[in-house]
Amino acid sequence: MADQASELEALELILTDANAEPTKLSYALIKSITTNFSQEIGLGGFGVVYLGVLRNEKVAVKKLFIEQDFSDELFVDEVNCLVRAKHNNIVRFLDYCADTQGELVKFDGRHVMAELRQRLLCFEYVPNGNLHDYIKGISHGDEWQIRYKMIKGICHGLQYLHKERITHLDLKPDNVLLDAYMEPKITDFGLSRLFDEGQSRVFTKNVPGTR
């Protein structure tokens, strides 16, 4: 419990310091802050997103789909990619979890030791949903200023990614989140490197997400 308390404190400090570097979180802490993954807030081609509740803040935890050919080497590459991406119009990456445990499972009539892998990414919580849902719900009376702010923010975020030589590959309204001030924040860039064509269910070709 003492280790979890110190981890939780470190995570909360990262949220208050924009220059703090992401660190590794334990799977036990992730399960604790998500109440054992009880509140799903998003579902995409790469994983399920759950709400994480800290003492004074909220976070979003993405639990990645793990297939047999999932590459940990590419997972490390993508964590490094997320660490590099620091911009007001990019969803902020906070921490990651890479947990591997052995588990006895029954196979062909006997028990064998199986490897159970969990790979998770922790991001800032962006409260106002995604651009796709916003567009569906807008009325003709919506102010042009708000729309212009969104367009401008998306352009700034995309320009930054390209400057950092990071290719998004799947920019669409679902992958643009809106914060409390309706500022757009781009998410889900680069993760395609972790998945092949069949797994991602989003991309039409297998192109690296970073160069």
UniProtKB/TrEMBL annotation:
ATP binds at residue 63. InterPro entries: Kinase-like_dom_sf, Prot_kinase_dom, Protein_kinase_ATP_BS, Ser/Thr_kinase_AS. Residues 35-211 form the Protein kinase domain. It catalyses: L-threonyl-[protein] + ATP = O-phospho-L-threonyl-[protein] + ADP + H(+); L-seryl-[protein] + ATP = O-phospho-L-seryl-[protein] + ADP + H(+). One of its GO terms (molecular function) is ATP binding. Pfam families: Pkinase. SUPFAM superfamilies: Protein kinase-like (PK-like) (SSF56112). Keywords: ATP-binding, Kinase, Nucleotide-binding, Serine/threonine-protein kinase, Transferase. Its EC number is 2.7.11.1. Belongs to the protein kinase superfamily. This is non-specific serine/threonine protein kinase. The lineage of its organism: Eukaryota, Viridiplantae, Streptophyta, Embryophyta, Tracheophyta.
